[in-house]
Amino acid sequence: xxxFGLIGYPIKGSLSPALFRAGYHGKYTYDLIEAPDFxxxxxxxxxxxxxxxxxxxxxxxxxxxxxxADPVCVKTGATNLMVKGQHGIYAFNSDYTxxxxxxxxxxxxxxxxxxxxxxxxxxxxxxxxxxxxxxIGCGGAGKAATVAAADxxxxxxxMNRTESKAENFAAALPGYRFRTQPIDSFGEAFWxxxxxxxxxxxxxxxxRELLSSAGTLSRDTPxxxxxxxxxxxxxxxxxxxxxASMCPETRYIGGLRWLLHQAAGGYELxxxxxxDFLAMEQVLSPEIQ
Length: 289
Fold this sequence. Notes:
This protein is α/β, with parallel strands linked by helices. It has two domains: 3-92 and 260-284, Leucine Dehydrogenase, chain A, domain 1 (Rossmann fold, 3-Layer(aba) Sandwich), CATH 3.40.50.10860; 96-253, NAD(P)-binding Rossmann-like Domain (Rossmann fold), CATH 3.40.50. The protein contains 13 helices and twelve strands. Strands 2-1-3-5-6-4 form a six-stranded mixed beta sheet, with helices on both faces. Strands 9-8-7-10-11-12 form a six-stranded parallel beta sheet, with helices on both faces. Helix 1 runs antiparallel to helix 13 (277-284), helix 5 (94-107) crosses helix 7 and helix 5 packs across helix 12 (255-271). The longest helix is centred in the last third of the chain and has 17 residues, at 255-271. The radius of gyration is 18 Å and the shape is globular. It starts with a strand and ends in a 5-residue tail after the last helix. 43% of the residues are buried.
């Protein structure tokens, strides 16, 4: 029987095993491979597993171990999924598709399964222009989010606590139209942007300050906030309600929705079989609502 798993640290309490079991109704094994040292976890993968998901803090280190990587991995320097193949280890990035599908679904439910070009076209129609996207964080998920937003035709701004890391990433992708800004300008950039993708594991002071400093914003088009962290989100319910009181079209997309979409796309790369999406969704209900 094929075996799959998740590499990361810490990952105790991860929902990935339950999602995988639901997706394939127990047909395959899926384990947590938790270790503070990536090399130890990677060795377990090589010895015992056919494929693994990779989560923080190992996405960039895992990419460097792959023999063959998909174009998104090459652009971002990060992978969240590795599979053994005939010619070695293959790396993929289902964070990218998970981000695009989460945003598309929030804009129009029938778009969730659409490809990049269709999502790009219909998103431009919804906004009547190229939307403004703001990505906060330049780790593996943040890099995937930046490329995903730019590929959807969004005018994308990237912020990171260490500004030089964001600047170096931008310089490495000269064919992409995105800019960097210091994280202390978060409030202004937030209100200017249509789509905010927050990938940092902790909160920044600017989030709480949003409620006292609304800037220029559109009240007639959707303002989407997609957050990666579903365990301890930085955007609390009261903050979202406060933002929505100033911008009625605000829609918050929690990290569980991102997890669901990236998992569904990634698991198919493992097995070659489409997982049962509705069964996976039920695992996360009612939390995902």
